[in-house]
């Protein structure tokens, strides 16, 4: 069961990530076509749509994580995939901005894939293999961001709505796949007996982290790293379009290269390097490389420099699976979904703040009204956030040891 379930949830994750990556190259142009306005206005709309999606995830991820602890992982995953199909279908049909944002509301409110998949992997992976399992999640993310943006850059030439139709079809396919083939991973005797609705709101869910000293400390690192990554994602396409004159095809190429480096890092570097370094050293190394990469992104004055920095980021891939392994071993089996929901809350909170902050910095430091020309301002701010998170993680990992949960 463990192997078949692992393959199915990784397939679900691949389709989810590839689908999101598929629409990234065309979304700013699509928003500009729906609402008109300048490229800077479209960038702010883009940041707003990312923030809306993340805000809904912020409020609903703890609910889905807790419900998966009570009723099992499979039904929550099915609900999430159905919501993704419906949300992207609404977006594909949108005649204006109103229906576009309604589609993002539907998809965001039901987005629970990563929360429940992480809990699923914690259910089926022995403690000594958890870093490798979470590394597979990162590798699938990377491959999805190779295939999705590359395909999106191509099909975007057929029409700006085509990628959304494709994503809706992908989500419907994975719903059918999971319904037929996905085994439940959480045995009945390990499920929550009661639902703690206080933990079903985003801030009440964070109380679950407070019960574990290591998680309470690492939460700040996760928060700061999430802020940096969300600024990067929101600014990436406007940045390369402004600085290098890239269009949808070139946007897709850069995102595909980013995904390829992530896949190589998670699929090859993580299984080789994490066992040699240990999870704690891997966290420190990964965060250090990430902080350096952010600085270099902001300094890259030519496209070839950007691709050279992307190659460096493979070493930065080791921190997230190592962190996930440390966290999953620190909590009880019947709280995996709740804790993953709380961690998703942190990520979603920064998914609200990060796009707004990143696109604000981009619009403030580019164009004729800029206080000074500094297109990489959001990347430099991200580097500072990651560096602060590194300092917190280093101190926490020296003070606390994870508590085995099995």
What can you see in these coordinates?
This protein has 406 residues and is mainly alpha-helical. It has one domain (2-179, 203-399): MFS general substrate transporter like domains (Growth Hormone, Chain: A). It has helices spanning 2-23, 27-35, 39-71, 73-93, 97-109, 113-124, 130-155, 162-181, 202-205, 207-210, 213-244, 248-277, 279-299, 303-312, 319-328, 336-364, 377-399. α4 (73-93) packs antiparallel against α8 (162-181) and α7 (130-155) packs across α15 (319-328). The chain is globular and about 60 Å long. Residues 402-406 have low confidence and may be disordered. The chain crosses the membrane at residues 43-64, 76-95, 101-122, 134-156, 162-182, 218-241, 253-274, 294-318, 339-362, 374-397. Keywords: Membrane, Transmembrane, Transmembrane helix, Transport. Residues 5-401 form the Major facilitator superfamily (MFS) profile domain. One of its GO terms (cellular component) is membrane.
The biggest sheet, with number of strands, parallel, antiparallel or mixed sense and barrel status, is: none
Number of helices: 17
Estimated radius of gyration: 20 Å
Instruction: Give me the CATH fold name.
Output: Growth Hormone, Chain: A
């Amino acid at each position: 069961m463990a192997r078949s379930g692992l393959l199915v949830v990784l397939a679900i994750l691949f389709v989810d990530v590839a689908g999101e990556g598929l629409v990234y190259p065309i979304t700013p142009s699509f928003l500009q076509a729906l609402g008109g306005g300048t490229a800077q206005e479209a960038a702010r709309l883009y940041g707003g749509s990312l923030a809306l999606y993340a805000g809904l995830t912020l409020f609903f991820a703890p609910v889905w994580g807790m419900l998966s602890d009570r009723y099992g992982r499979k039904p929550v995953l099915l609900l999430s995939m159905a919501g993704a199909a419906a949300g992207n279908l609404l977006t594909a049909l949108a005649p204006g901005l109103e229906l576009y944002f309604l589609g993002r509301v539907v998809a965001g409110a039901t987005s629970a894939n990563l929360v429940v998949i992480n809990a699923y992997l914690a259910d089926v992976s022995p403690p000594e293999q958890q870093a490798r399992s979470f590394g597979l999640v990162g590798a699938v993310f990377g491959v999805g961001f190779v295939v999705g943006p590359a395909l999106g850059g191509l099909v975007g030439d057929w029409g700006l709505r085509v990628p959304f139709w494709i994503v809706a079809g992908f989500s419907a396919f994975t719903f059918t796949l999971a319904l037929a083939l996905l085994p439940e991973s959480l045995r009945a005797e390990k499920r929550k007996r009661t639902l703690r609705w206080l933990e079903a709101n985003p801030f009440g869910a964070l109380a679950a982290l407070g019960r574990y000293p290591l998680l309470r400390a690492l939460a700040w690192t996760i928060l700061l790293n999430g802020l940096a990554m969300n600024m990067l994602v929101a600014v990436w396409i406007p940045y390369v379009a402004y600085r290098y004159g890239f269009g949808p095809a070139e946007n897709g190429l850069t995102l595909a290269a980013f995904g390829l480096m992530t896949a190589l890092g998670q699929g090859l570097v993580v299984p080789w390097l994490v066992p040699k370094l240990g999870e704690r050293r891997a966290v420190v190394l990964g965060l250090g490389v990430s902080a350096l990469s952010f600085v270099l992104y902001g300094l890259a004055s030519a496209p070839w420099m950007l691709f050279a920095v992307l190659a460096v980021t493979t070493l930065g891939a080791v921190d997230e699976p190592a962190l996930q392994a440390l966290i999953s071993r620190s909590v009880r089996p019947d709280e995996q979904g709740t804790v993953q929901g709380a961690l998703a809350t942190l990520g979603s909170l920064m998914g609200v703040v990060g796009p707004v902050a990143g696109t604000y910095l981009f619009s403030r430091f580019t164009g004729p009204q800029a206080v000074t020309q500094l297109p990489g301002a959001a990347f430099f701010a991200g580097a500072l956030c990651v560096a602060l998170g590194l300092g917190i993680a280093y101190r926490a990992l020296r003070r606390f040891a994870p508590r085995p949960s099995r």
